[in-house]
Every structure is written in structure tokens, then in C-alpha cells.
């Protein structure tokens, strides 16, 4: 995993069924108990790596752009979210403990 991140718990930051969000260098969790959820932390660490690869700010533009594209195509917010290449990579590999050690740069592109 990435060692230069900070975990914050903030239940007021969330809506719907999201348990965590990553805004470099922070992983913000809905509740303190989620700190022990290795799958969730791994998922968010994958997003940290993606953000670093795209120099942080461009990541957010790309993320929002992809979300809007998929939403226009499907008119379904959940499906649009799940279709974002960053999310597809993170969900695919969130249970692979050594994924970040073996991951090649820009691996999210395989999930476009």
C-alpha cells in the first residue's frame, strides 16, 4: 500500500452508500470502524496511486468527465459511477493485497 496517506473519519461528508472517498493525500471514511476494512483501504489506496499518476488535479477532471459521459449514456448514476475506469480498476483489484506493488503505471487505462 501507499505509505504517505492520512485517514480521516467524517460521517457528515457522505451520502448514499459510499463508505470512503480519496482526496489526495487523505482517505476520508464514513466511520472509524472502516479503518480496519482492508478491502476499502486498498480500494482507496489504488485511487491515491491513480491521482499521483495524473498529478492530482487532472485526475478529478478526468473522473468527473468520465462520470458525466457514462451518465449521459445510461441516465443511471450508479451505473455511471461503476463504469468509471478508475473505479473499475479499484474494484477489480481491491482484494489483491500486493496489487500496488506489482501495478504498472496508468493501469486504469486497461479499464476504459
Task: Explain what you see.
This is DUF4157 domain-containing protein. It comes from Myroides pelagicus. The chain crosses the membrane at residues 12-29, 54-72. This protein has 112 residues and is mainly alpha-helical. The chain has one domain. Helix content is 48%, strand content 11%. A 3-stranded mixed beta sheet has the order 1-3-2, with helices on one face. Strand 2 (20-23) and strand 3 form a beta hairpin. The longest helix is centred in the middle third of the chain and has 18 residues, at 57-74. The radius of gyration is 14 Å and the shape is globular. The two termini are 23 Å apart. The model has no long low-confidence stretch (mean pLDDT 94).
Topology (elements, then pairings):
Layout lengths: L5 E4 L10 E4 L2 E4 L8 H16 L3 H18 L2 H7 L1 H9 L5 H4 L10
Parallel strand pairs: 1-3
Antiparallel strand pairs: 2-3
Helix pairs in contact: 1-2, 1-4, 2-3
- Contiguous low-pLDDT stretches (5 residues minimum) are none
Secondary-structure-based class equals: mainly alpha
Relative strand content? 5-15%
Indicate the mean pLDDT: 94
Give the helices and strands as they follow along the chain.
EEEHHHHH
Distance between the termini: 23 Å
Cα-based radius of gyration, to the nearest Å = 14 Å
Judging from the principal axes of the Cα atoms, what is the shape?
globular
> What fraction, in percent, of the residue positions are helical?
40-55%
User: Strand tally, please?
Assistant: 3
Please, how many domains? Answer: 1
Q: Could you describe the largest sheet, including whether it forms a barrel? A: 3 strands, mixed
- Spatial order of the strands forming the largest sheet: 1-3-2
Count of discrete alpha- or pi-helical segments spanning 4 or more residues: 5
Protein name: DUF4157 domain-containing protein
Keywords: Membrane, Transmembrane, Transmembrane helix
Amino acid at each position: 500500500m501507499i505509505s504517505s496517506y492520512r485517514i480521516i473519519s467524517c460521517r457528515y461528508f457522505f451520502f448514499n452508500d459510499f463508505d470512503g472517498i480519496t482526496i489526495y493525500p487523505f482517505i476520508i471514511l464514513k466511520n472509524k470502524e472502516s479503518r480496519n476494512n482492508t478491502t476499502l483501504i486498498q480500494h482507496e489506496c489504488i485511487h491515491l496511486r491513480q491521482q499521483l499518476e495524473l498529478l492530482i488535479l487532472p485526475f478529478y477532471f478526468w473522473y468527473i468527465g468520465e462520470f458525466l459521459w457514462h451518465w449521459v449514456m445510461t441516465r443511471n448514476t450508479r451505473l455511471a459511477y461503476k463504469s468509471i475506469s478508475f473505479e473499475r480498476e479499484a474494484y477489480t483489484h481491491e482484494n489483491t493485497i500486493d496489487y500496488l506493488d506489482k501495478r504498472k503505471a496508468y493501469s486504469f487505462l486497461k479499464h476504459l
